[in-house]
Design a protein that fits this description.
alpha+beta, seven-stranded mixed beta sheet, 47% helix, 5 domains, elongated, six-stranded antiparallel beta sheet, Beta-Lactamase
């Protein structure tokens, strides 16, 4: 029985008791005023009929309750429901007619509202036609932009300055799926998505460094700066990435010193195969050169002995056989080299053109940020351009500076950059406390260490990438010592060559440029507006309704809401092998049979992938207490904790529509005119819940519930918040 019925009957009972008490007091006063014979007459007349009177009194109370319930339904509940339904029509784009109920006046009012709704829909239809006609050219330009982006042969990812993904093409999604070392769960959708952070896929330090380089060149007036770097994925694959900036629309009110960078574009290319081919070719070349020295020495020695005039015939035959064997071996090695050379051209480590002064400034900033060392500039050629892989080279310089600080107690360094023929000299200078500099020899052969991180590369490896070298010298007067790094130079203002504009079949289907305006870093999540948050709306199907007693998840389905938009193309749907039987009585409800889950990933594989899919989002579910309980009981087994903020559409429906009879998902969907497809499947329920939740946001806003914190607080005050699993 609903709470309103309990309150009504309790009210009727209280009224009955009050009336009974009043009658008792009145009767007592009358009884006290009667004579003895009058009292005996009353007892004789009323006594046999007392039970009948009590029954009539109870029947009258029930009749009053029924009439009161009907009056409440006619004059209170029906108008309240009509008001709630009208608010749904007013605050959302729901298109449905209201059902008349209640008094005749209330029914007439419902018909008037339906007529107004019909008029509004007619006006909307007319307006939509005009908007479609006016936006036809805009859509055409949008399609042209999509077609242009699809022409890029590389994977394309566009991000805002916070690293949130605004656009990606299908090639990028498939590439990151292929590069993941995790087992294939739900198609790898947790790796790429709108509103996600690119730093979940790429190293934040590399991306930040490339972005700093671009910003520095923009401030210097460069018209089209770009940066390149190479990174290794979790699966051990090599990616070559080119970054270009996204500029803001020119604004006369923009301060000159304010950067006009709003985001960046990443073009990604997998160069693992090229690198492996390069390594194989180096192996063959080494085998041909170094490995051939012994063969040539053997053949030469045999030839020299063959020149002896008194050589025995048996010895001559053996020496000729040696020469023949060595020559055949050399021939095989040459054939191997030729076959390898025909497969692929040599793959080179990508070097970017960078103004030398910019690199020196970046090195100074990086060293002072990492170490308690004061860095100043000695002499820097402002016109000199370098061709470098700046990230690893900067790490190498920080490593050398750190070793100087640790071993030689150096507290001040100077940087110097000058041209020397076709190469550049980059010097790291310091004043040693003692004349012997041999103590610092060998540091270039150590693994680069910056803070608590140790790279697999050495300084010598980094210089080898640049076909460079390093050594230690002292100035002529003997005052300062310095590391000298020999680096390649680039032509001034040399543009990067690009072969990126070739045809491909992929289209940038997934984009939301409105995210350029988002910047959630300056506010706490609780204070964020509901319309600005990113949500993961999910549902689970289970073997039963008691997860704490052993019922298991057999399906997880989820969709994402980004920038107040439901992303139908970014879904997480995965069957789960429960490693136990599925009760037959539940199969007609969810439609999942034992054969369907046999051999599917287990919950230990699925939940970590789902956790990555839901990273940095707010979880939304209908009757979320049950779904969250299903996740919580698996924390120890899977090693992941779902500590996300949670919103429940069941509780929010009770907040918005407290007078409705039902808050089941079907009833809510009917109120909002949301079509239900795939009920009692995880993905179907998640999709319906997401559409319902989007309808709720403007209604919550009208009630003054605008932020996540306000929504959670209001939901916890509802009656249904007491449900536990």
């Amino acid at each position: 029985m609903r709470r309103v019925d309990w309150r009504m009957w309790m009210g009727v009972g209280v009224v009955g008791l009050v009336c009974l008490l009043w009658l008792g007091v009145t009767g007592g006063l009358i009884w006290a005023s009667l004579e003895e014979n009058e009292r005996q007459a009353v007892i004789t007349a009323v006594g046999p009929r007392a039970v009948l009177l009590i029954m009539m009194w109870a029947i009258s109370l029930v009749a009053v309750g029924v009439v009161l319930k009907r009056l409440i339904a006619e004059f209170k509940t029906a108008p309240a429901r009509l008001a709630e339904d009208a608010k749904v029509l007013l605050g959302t784009d729901v298109k449905r007619r209201l059902t008349p109920q209640g008094t005749a006046e209330n029914r007439q009012l419902t018909e008037v509202i339906n007529q107004l709704v019909d008029q509004r829909e007619a006006l909307r239809t007319e307006m939509d036609q005009r908007v479609q006609e006016a936006s036809r050219n805009t859509e055409l330009e949008k399609s042209r932009l999509a077609a242009l982006m699809s022409e890029l042969t590389k994977s394309v990812v566009v991000c805002n300055l916070d690293g949130r993904i605004l656009l990606y093409n299908n090639r990028a999604r498939m590439q990151f799926k292929a590069l993941s070392k995790a087992p294939a769960v739900a198609g790898g959708v947790e790796l790429m998505g709108l509103g996600r952070s690119i730093y979940g896929v790429l190293d934040r330090k590399l991306v930040t460094h490339a972005l700093e380089n671009i910003q520095t060149r923009l401030k210097r007036g460069a018209s089209a700066p770009s940066a390149q770097f190479v990174t290794t994925t979790q699966a051990g694959q090599l990616l070559r990435i080119q970054m270009t900036p996204v500029r803001a629309v020119l604004n006369q009110d923009l301060a000159p010193e304010q950067p006009d960078l709003t985001g960046f574009v990443l073009l990604l290319e997998n160069i693992t195969r090229d690198f492996e081919d390069d390594s194989e070719k180096d192996r063959v070349l080494y085998s041909l050169t170094e490995g051939s020295r012994a063969a040539l020495a053997n053949a030469q020695a045999a030839v020299e002995v063959l020149e002896y005039p008194d050589l025995e015939p048996d010895m001559r035959d053996r020496l000729i056989a040696v020469v023949r064997e060595e020559i055949q071996g050399l021939g095989k090695k040459i054939d191997e080299l030729q076959a390898s050379s025909a497969n692929n051209l040599r793959s080179r480590w990508p070097l970017e053109d960078m103004l030398g002064a910019d690199f020196v400034d970046a090195a100074s900033t990086r060293i002072q940020a990492a170490l308690p060392i004061e860095v100043s500039l000695d002499q820097v050629d402002g016109s000199l351009w370098l061709k470098v892989e700046s990230f690893s080279l900067l790490q190498a310089m920080v490593h050398l500076a750190g070793r100087l600080h640790e071993e030689c107690r150096v507290k001040a360094l100077q940087l110097r950059l000058a041209a020397a023929g076709q190469r550049a000299h980059l010097d790291l200078l310091w004043k040693p406390d003692y004349p012997d500099t041999k103590a610092v020899l060998g540091w270039e052969m150590e693994q680069i260490r910056v803070g608590s991180e140790t790279m697999s590369l050495t300084v010598q490896d980094v210089l080898a990438r640049h076909s460079g070298d390093s050594w230690i010298e002292r100035e002529a007067d003997g005052g300062r010592a310095f590391f000298r790094l020999l680096l390649p130079m680039a032509a001034p203002q040399e543009e990067l060559s690009s072969d990126a504009f070739l045809r491909t079949e992929s289209r940038p289907e997934y984009y939301d440029f409105d995210l350029f305006q988002s910047s959630a870093q300056s506010r706490s999540l609780e204070d964020c507006l509901l319309s600005e948050l990113t949500y993961t709306v999910f549902d689970t199907e289970t073997t039963g309704l008691n997860p704490a007693a052993g019922d298991e998840i057999i399906q997880v389905g989820a969709v994402r809401i980004v920038n107040n938009k439901l992303l139908h193309q970014e879904g997480f749907e995965q069957l789960v092998d429960p490693q136990r039987s599925i009760p037959p009585e539940g199969i007609p409800i969810h439609g999942i049979t034992p054969d369907m889950v046999k051999g599917k990933p287990t919950i230990q594989q699925v939940l970590p992938a789902f956790h990555s899919f839901a990273n940095d989002t707010v979880l939304v579910a209908h009757n979320a207490a049950f779904d969250m309980r299903c996740l919580q009981v698996k924390e120890q087994a899977t090693g992941v904790v779902f500590d996300h903020p949670v919103l429940d559409t069941l509780l929010l429906s009770a907040v918005i529509h407290p007078n409705q009879e039902s808050h089941r998902l079907e009833a809510i969907a009917e109120r909002f005119n949301v079509t239900i497809i795939g009920r009692h499947t995880a993905m179907g329920d998640a999709m319906v819940t997401a559409e319902v939740f989007l309808k709720m946001i403007p209604l919550l806003n009208e009630m003054g519930i605008r932020t996540l914190g306000q929504a959670r607080e209001a939901a916890q005050k509802t009656y249904f918040a007491r449900l536990k699993y």
